[in-house]
Protein: Torsin family 3, member A
Organism: Kryptolebias marmoratus
Amino acid sequence: MLSRWLLPLLCALSAAEADFFRFGSIGNVSTYYFNYFYCNIWEGDCQPHQDDATQQVPVGDLWSGFPQDYVSLLHQWYCSLGQCCESGDCRITNNITGLEKDLQTKLHGQHLVQSVVLKAIQGFINNPEPNKPLTLSFHGWSGTGKNFVARIVADNLYRDGVKSECVRLFIAPFHFPHARLVDTYKGQLREAIRDMVLRCPQTLFIFDEAEKLHPGLIDAIKPFMDHYDNVDGVSYRRAIFLFLSNIGGAAINDVALDFWHSGQNREDIGMEDLEHRLRAETMESQGGFAQSELMSGHLIDFFVPFLPLEYRHVKLCARDAYVARGLETDEATLDEVAKAMLYVPKEERLFSAQGCKSIPQRINFFLP
């Protein structure tokens, strides 16, 4: 009985392994730099031997070499071990209550993000027959929480968060570094997305630094985000695409600064104040993201603006960083951490130029 399951799977694994390493040999970015970025920006687990600059970033998907019959066979075997739920797939949790709570308690200074992301994802999850995949585009300065929110989404929609088999993270300059290889990347990306959708009923794809993606690369996967019943027999309507970009940061900051100068509350900033300007700046920006058919085809469902963080928000981030380490702190210490950050405009020291991203490392200087 065991051999009936294992023999075909082992044979398929051998083929898949060969394809996987050919896939990974194309990018010439070392594992060291990928791990550094992943550990420090995405807070993932660091892999051993990070100083081995001869290793390449594994862009490929181990499952891409499996014939679909074997993928189905493996899924049946997985369920036979009690790893599947009556409601569907145990890898998928869709904890909307947890998502709402995390956005409200862990994310600071982003009332628009809290509202738009929750409504968009809740509406998509609760819709039994969406007419297209959900596509969200996160915009704002570095450190304002784009990566953080992407992790919150993954943590609440999937049991294993960003490590889930149903979640895939692509970092533009690391996974697709060479313009001359864009045609090769197109095929690899299409195949990786197709394979994930086939083996997971609800998938999440995160594209970080999306403004650095080649336009041809985005256009290659544009059909997966369009209003099609299926593409080559595969339906992508239950997929979620998140694009993270610094594009539009200037427009967002200008609006926030105008509100501050006019004495209006930051929380009074609405999507109507930002969406048109954000869309226009994105269309006029340089880079593949703006030039792609994703923009001209109006396939982005929501442009999500991340406002620049103020001094009070930085203090809240510092407090969270201390709590995460199990350390007690006081207002004086939080003030010291917040004061050590850079702020703009210089004459007003209003918005943090670094956001909250560097807080966990910065508090090391204030530990006894």
In short: Residues 311-365 form one domain. DSSP finds 16 helices and nine strands in the chain. The radius of gyration is 22 Å. The first helix runs from residue 2 to 24.
